[in-house]
Amino acid sequence: MIAALILALALAMDAFAVALTQGARFRPHALGAVQIALAFGVAQGVMPLIGWVIGAYALQFVAAWDHWIAFALLAFLGLRMIFAGEHQDEALKLSGAALFMASIATSVDALAAGITLPTLDIAPLPAAALIAGVTFALSLVGVVLGRRAGDRFGRTAEIAGGVILIALGCKILVEHTGIV
Known about the structure:
Radius of gyration: 16 Å
Order of helices and strands: HHHHHHHH
Low-confidence stretches: none
Shape: elongated
Strand content: under 5%
Distance between the termini: 23 Å
Number of helices: 8
C-alpha cells in the first residue's frame, strides 16, 4: 500500500500545481476551491481504472516485459511533468468546460499509471480511491496555499511529482530484474 500512496502523491502533483496557480491568480472562494479539487480528484480516480482495465487485458500478452513497460511509462510521465514544471504557460481561470478539460488533461498520466497497476500488485479500486482522495486533498490545499503564498511553488510541485514517478519506475525495474 506504500507504493499506492507514493503513486497517488506523485500523480496528484500536477493537479496540485494547477490548483496552486488557480488559488494564486484567481483567488477562488471556498465553493470554487472545492469544485476545483473535486474535478481533479474524480478525474484522477477514474483514469487509473481505465488504465488498469487496459493493463490487465494487455498484461497477459506482455508479461515478460511488463516491468520495462511500467518503467518506460512512468519515466516518460515523470520527464513530461519535470519539463512542464519548468515551462508553464499563463494560467487560465478554470470553471465549467475549462475545468473539465484541465482535470482530464492533468489525469492522463493517471491513465498511463493505471496500466502499471498490475505490475505493482495493487488492487485497482482501493488504489483509484486513494489516488482520488489524495488528489482532492492536495488540490484543495493547493488552492488555499495559492491564495496565501502566490504561484511560486506550482512548478516545484510538478517537478517533484515527476521525480517521484521516475523513482517509482526505477523501483519496479529493480524489483523485477534484480538490478542493484
